[in-house]
Write a structure and sequence with these properties.
Elements (H helix, E strand, L loop, with lengths): L2 E5 L3 H7 L3 H9 L5 H8 L3 E7 L7 E8 L4 H17 L3 E6 L2 E5 L5 E8 L3 E6 L17 E5 L1 H6 L9 H4 L4 E5 L9 E5 L1
Antiparallel strand pairs: 1-2, 1-8, 2-3, 3-7, 4-5, 5-6, 6-7, 8-9, 9-10
């Protein structure tokens, strides 16, 4: 894994993503992710992973595993709405397994999809279907944990510019913290 972020509350990611009205509106109107779904997702345990892709057109694949709160029917309806939107954008859906949906371009290249893992866990992914699924494990002694492989990210030109040399050359960077509010970066930093 190039990067993995695990946390007790998805609010950690959603707050940043939904801070602009344009993105909030687009997610609601175009992809059907409305106020009720966002409210429920905020308290959901999650694991986000960026994995290297040695073959194919992508340098990395992104996976988000979420333990969805509430009735599965709510999420199935959202996935049906999302399916209609993706179809209207020219993507084609295939279901190689009952709980797996893959979305492909006209050239047959898979661009993403989702897979139900039991009744309450949904894996969403961008890029090829992952062969290995992240696990929902609560960070020990923290509300969230970020694990980064800076040297590998740098080698694939996926690391943001301007980071200190000690960070760019580190084999592993671990950040742990508590809370998801303004004090979200209170915690521990470990470079290896």
């Amino acid at each position: 894994q190039l990067l993995e972020l695990r946390g007790l509350r998805l609010e950690l990611l959603l707050r940043g993503l939904l801070s602009t009205g344009l993105l909030r509106t687009t997610l609601a109107e175009r992809y059907g992710l409305g106020i009720e779904q966002v409210r429920r997702l905020q308290g959901a345990q999650f694991a986000l992973r960026l994995s290297s892709q040695p073959k194919g057109p992508y340098r990395a694949g992104l996976q988000l595993l979420v333990r969805l709160p509430g009735d599965r029917e709510l999420w199935d309806r959202w996935l049906q709405d999302l399916s209609r939107t993706l179809e209207s954008q020219g993507l084609t859906r295939s279901q190689p397994a009952p709980e797996l949906s893959l979305w492909s371009r006209e050239d047959g290249e898979t661009v993403g999809g989702w897979r139900w893992l039991g009744a309450t866990q949904l894996l969403l992914f961008v890029g090829p279907s992952p062969t290995e699924v992240p696990r929902l494990e609560a960070p020990i002694g923290a509300d969230w944990q970020l694990l980064i492989q800076p040297a590998q990210l740098e080698a694939q030109q996926l690391l943001p510019p301007g980071l200190p040399l000690v960070v760019r050359r580190s084999a592993q960077l671990v950040l742990q913290g508590r809370g998801s509010g303004q004090s979200a970066l209170a915690g521990r930093l470990e470079l290896r």
